[in-house]
Amino acid sequence: TGPVAAAGFAHSPEAGQWATVTKLARNALLGGVAIAYSLAYTASSATEPGVRRLWTEFPKFLFGFLVVAAVANSGLLSTAALDSIGLVSDALFTLAFVGLGLSIRLRQLRGVGAAAVGVVLVHLLVVSALALGAVRWLL
């Protein structure tokens, strides 16, 4: 969220506010989407009982996300502490993407085929067009 907001504010204060709202909305909806996926996979499974399957499929990191969000918004931490934690978070986020980039093997990606690449490109174009349309409509 930090880099997106920073990029927005680098353009203008209004763009920064929209970038922040967009990222916060995305983050807030992420938990609901994860739960919906867990429920969908649970319903499609006939091998395990529903509750056990739901627990198996449910992304447990969301509990940590909720705890951190609650602590960050509770007033227990000072602004300086939150700023420091934000810097560490940005560094770890960058490191995670470096690790992701280092693990990509282009030879394996070539084996995926043009259809998969096409799906990704269409997805990116549709999401970009919808985002641009929403921004133009709202402004």
TrEMBL record:
Coiled-coil residues: none
Keyword Transmembrane belongs to the record: yes
Keyword match Transmembrane: yes
Domain of life: Archaea
A GO CC term assigned to this protein in UniProt: plasma membrane
UniProt-listed Pfam families: Cons_hypoth698
Keywords of this entry: Cell membrane, Membrane, Transmembrane, Transmembrane helix
Topological category with respect to the lipid bilayer: Multi-pass membrane protein
Places the protein is found: Cell membrane
Chain ranges passing through the membrane: 61-79, 85-104, 116-138
PANTHER family (alphabetical): INNER MEMBRANE PROTEIN YEIH-RELATED (PTHR30106), UPF0324 MEMBRANE PROTEIN FN0533 (PTHR30106:SF1)
Protein name: Sulfate exporter family transporter
Species whose genome carries this gene: Halorubrum tibetense
